Amino acid sequence: MATITQKSTKAIKKLTTPQLIRSGLYIVWGAGLLLLTTTILGIQEQRNAIKTVGRDAVPSIITAQRLKDGMAGMDAFAASEFLVPSSNTQNSFLEPVEKDNDGTIVQSYNERYRSVTERLIAAANNITYDEEREPIQTMQLGIGEYVAKIQQARDAHARRDQAGTLAAYLSAVEILDKTLLPAADRLDQANLKVLDRTYGEQRFASARSLFLIAIVTLGLAGILVMLQLFLSQRTRRTFNPFLLSATAIALLFLVHTIGSLLSASNHLKVAKEDAFDSMHVLRQARALAYGANADESRYLLDVRNAATHEQAFFNKLNQIAAPPSGQTLEQIILLAQQDTKLTGLTGFLGEELSNITFPGERQAVIDNLSTLSQYLQIDKQIRQLQQSGKYREAIALCVGNNPGESNWAFEQFKKANQKTYDVNDKAFKDAITQGDQDLEGFEVKSTIVTITIALLVLLGVMPRLKEYS
């Protein structure tokens, strides 16, 4: 090693001043090219991460969640539909119950069905990863089978065939629970897996890119300083304004690049950890709430298996929000309203309450918990009416849309949930947009800076080379 170093030193000493100046020029140009390459690669890595999170994975995850709550919503409306008399018949047992509010339940079911089919088409046209294909195909096939079973139940309901209605509806429920909802979860997980992997890789890649860009830029600046010193010693010039300008541009560009990359990385963090994580749990809570709403109707519709449906209802509610042992949901809400730091609230809304970041988000979550509590109180009344033999009153309370009735309370929960979601959705979109803006035009800026440095160095050394001509 020492021999190689000695030979290199001897070879350098044999070079004339013009040769050394030219060598310095070429080294600067090479370092500038390396800086350009390193910067562009780092920017593109960051931009691809933003694209994957903001435009590929997250929209697909939200679509999967919307498919899930859409299908669960269809089932909730179908269950409510079979609790009230068909518009084609009179049912003496249910006659006191208002008949579907002039077809409102059926209309809501049909609207949900249309939205599900539209989202399935959109998902099929926007397949980014192979893992998305199977669950989308499963849902496309399964939704047809589910709708066919619901139509069978409707036909039996119109004939006043309660046993046939229940049998067909429970067959539809089996398709929903065993095929459709699990497929929606698989679509969600396929994209969530990519999102988590991309985000984890991005954080490492961002740190690596910043390190490499800093090393290359500082190396370029060091070479420029050495060239400046060399010219000062050999040509007896105090300083070279062109080389000084090139050095200043390189250092300023380093500051700008690091600032832009850090800003973009921070905006990506806001989008993923602060906004999307909340959006995801809120959507999961919404889908579970639709499922619980269906369980509430099944409790009255399928009397033989009422206990099973009741347990399913409370299982879902515990996944949405479960207060710690010894406390009620009302107590948790009161503490939250007092800005008390909460511990022990589990479930999706508990996760959201522990991830408050944006203005208005905390109050929106509290409103979401309050509307959930209100819904649960009405559900308790439904079960008390049913258990005391007041079936008609229980059904009326279950399907009612007036203030103080179950469907009205459920709508209040949905609105509060959507409000909380919208706060995070806006923050997510803003963060992705700002992350893109941080990196906008960086390839052009990097190229201009590199060319400018190369030209300044050339202008700086050419007069000195001419002196030796």
Short structural summary:
This protein is mostly helical and 469 residues long. It has helices spanning 2-14, 17-81, 100-124, 133-158, 162-235, 241-301, 306-320, 329-337, 348-353, 361-387, 391-399, 406-438, 442-467. Helices cover 83% and strands 0% of the residues.
Notes on the structure:
The two termini are about 35 Å apart. About 5% of the residues have low confidence. This protein has one domain. The protein is an all-alpha fold and about 475 residues long. α2 packs antiparallel against α12, α5 packs antiparallel against α6 and α8 packs antiparallel against α10. The chain contains 13 helices and no strands. The chain is elongated. About 85% of the residues lie in helices and about 0% in strands.
Structural class: mainly alpha
Largest sheet descriptor: none
Q: Beta-strand percentage?
A: under 5%
Number of strands: 0
Radius of gyration: 33 Å
Parts with pLDDT < 50 across at least 5 consecutive residues: 89-102
Report how far apart the termini are.
Answer: 37 Å
Order of helices and strands: HHHHHHHHHHHHH
Q: What would you call the shape?
A: elongated
Total domains:
1
Number of helices in the DSSP assignment: 13
Helical proportion? over 70%
Mean pLDDT figure: 88
Keywords:
single chain, 469 residues, mainly alpha, 13 helices
SSE topology:
Blueprint: H1 2-14, H2 17-81, H3 100-124, H4 133-158, H5 162-235, H6 241-301, H7 306-320, H8 329-337, H9 348-353, H10 361-387, H11 391-399, H12 406-438, H13 442-467
